Amino acid sequence: MFGSGHTYFAGSPVVINIDGLEWPGNSPFNIVRVYVYYNSKKVGEFKADTGGQSSISFDISSALRAIWADYDFSSEVSAAEDHSTSSRSYRSYSLEVLTEYIDSQDGEFTQTRSGIFSGGQCAFGSYTEWERSLAGSSADADVQYHDGENRRNGDASTKPTSTPERVGRSSITSWVDVSNAGTTCRYYAASATPSGDSASAHPPLVLRDDQEYVDFLFLNRRGAVETCSGLTKEAMNIAVDVKQFAYVERPSFRPSRSLMALGTDGRRSWQMSSGYVTREWADWWTMEFLGGKKKLWWMKYKGPGQSAAAYVPVIIEPSKKSVGIYDKNKQQLPHVDFTVTLALEG
Q: Full-prediction pTM beyond 0.90?
């Protein structure tokens, strides 16, 4: 029921097949229920009438996503700041199957319970439709990412490998090593060497020039904390509201109207860009960095009065409603522009 030694991404379709069902021929309904438990609590319930068929399938991914709804990634962000290691264990779940029917002859209601099936485990993250189509079978579509041409086998990074990663001088790189014991996030500082670390399984880091870059951490679709560096353009916006207000003048007590400019909680925003990149990297910036399903970003920021920079939560939005990443009529590299807004008040 759980596959053989597989751990599934909670955000991908996780289908369980129930076979060998037997029903009386005169039953008006034949109900199958599946309960999903996590820490002895029911997190999902699925039911359907089989119509007398002997098998049925359920996609339980919505219940597995609920298992990870309370996960706090702040510890992993802190680890990224220190270039240290942060471990995230898989979460285990169990299943229970129930069958229900009514005998039309004697009107007796019959319910059978399978008992608890334990041994299921899932990880935060998901596969794209393309990645799932490459899987040989549903049992193979677990967290072990395998592609014969991909040098990142066994980790959860989604960055392209056909071209080197270009980062700012203060950037870090990260990936998630997948094993049976759990998921371990490792963070390495960028350096001038061909690779940020000694492992040949990861693409080299190519440093940019001394232009101003800002480092970001974000959660990719497979649940890994990824890094990238955005080029800061020569623009910064501070939102200000102009409001009308009324006050009473003495001694006539006649109302008078005026205008006042009010800062909106000190929230700042910056215009930034990926810089000129290849088509493959432009697609990654657009679909992964800007279009991530779980909107969690952190930016390395040093505010007024701070002695050192820290990663703070931000909101990332495309600068335009549509982002063009490919045009044969233009003989130049594409770039992806976006707006960064501090997700803090005060």
A: no
